[in-house]
Amino acid sequence: MYIEWKKEYNTGIEKIDKQHKKLVELINKLHDEIILKKDCDSVQEIIVDLKLYTIFHFTTEEKLFKKYGYNSTEYDEHIEKHNTFRKKIADFMGDTTSSQLELGYFVAEYLKKWLTVHILVADMKFASFLKKHHFTEIYLDKDISYKEEYIK
Asked: Can you give the pTM of this predicted structure?
């Protein structure tokens, strides 16, 4: 369930990569609380933190979609993935049959699979769109920046 950050998860968009790393950090923290400490109160707090931070992250991405005109089939698919994720987390939050540790495990497993696939597929499509169509504008935009390794 633990996620090790890999260089292939880097989109090249610094703001998005930092947010993805924060999500990975929270998932790994949830893992530690479930497996190592078995602390139910902490598990609940981390799940809430993950939900709130994910909403913040999706809002960031969706603002960038609008700002840079990412209006395509990929846009619709990306938004649908965000909406499916929101619904799944709401379902987890409404689960009254599982213990907090079980719920934490289910959430962590789901997030690990969802986040890594989402980054490697949907987010990479968006990053590619930005690099292809708006590179100069993005490079100058204070809201978003590229890592130096991508500006060669």
From this structure: 0.83
